Amino acid sequence: MDFPIMPMPPDLWPAVREIYRGGIVTGNATFETEPPEWEKWDSNHRKDCRLVALEPFEKESEFVIPLEKVTVIGWAALSPVSGRLVYRGVAEVSVYVAATARGRGVGKALVRAVVNESERNGIWTLQAGIFPENVASIALHKSCGFREVGVRRRIGKLGNMWRDVLLLERRSATVGV
Questions:
Q1: Which residues pair with 150 in a beta bridge?
Q2: According to the model, what pLDDT value does residue 60 have?
Q3: Beta strands in 3-116 (DSSP E)
Q4: Which of 9, 18, 42, 124 has its CA 20 to 30 A from that of 36?
């Protein structure tokens, strides 16, 4: 299925935040226990690689569809891994899909789109840290060219439980070669 994917305007943050909250509730998406406020999320993510996937819609005209008429079903964004200049082309990818849209290819469409967007913006390596229990996310990333590079054992606690994080990365074939 073809999902419209567009840059994420700040006006869609409430919908993105709720999808993030849905991922947090699973217990297998992040160490976060609550989604942050916009200002914190905005300051922690690159401005140029933020995308949302929308529920397919009928075009009313050739004009822009008003944001209040779209339904966000997933999002992807990149975070810098370091402020050091040597790592300017390395970013961490986050991708979340609404529970109602999982299994429909939304995640794959978002990862492919954020890979393309990252390369347009000079990113040569994408990395992802995924709980080993999140087998769907691991499979998704691997299907989009990511490879396992290691496991960080008992790297952090979620509640009272130590969690491992599987590290995956994707090296661009066009940027930084």
A1: 167
A2: 58
A3: 5-7, 50-54, 72-80, 90-97
A4: 124
CA distance 171 to 61: 40
Ranges of residues in the chain whose predicted pLDDT is under 70:
1, 57-68
Q: What is the pLDDT of residue 70?
A: 82
Average pLDDT, the chain: 93
2-24 confidence digits (pLDDT tens):
889 999 999 999 999 999 999 99
What are the sequence ranges of the domains in the chain? Answer: 5-125
Apex 115 CA angle, 5 and 41, nearest 5: 70
3-state secondary structure at position 25: helix
- SS3 of residue 65 by DSSP: coil
In what helix (H) or strand (E) does residue 155 lie, and over which residues does it extend?
strand 147-158
Query: 72: alpha, beta or left, given left = phi > 0 and alpha = psi -120 to 50?
Result: beta
pLDDT of the residue at 65: 61
Name the residue among 164, 169, 160, 167 with its Cα closest to residue 124. 169
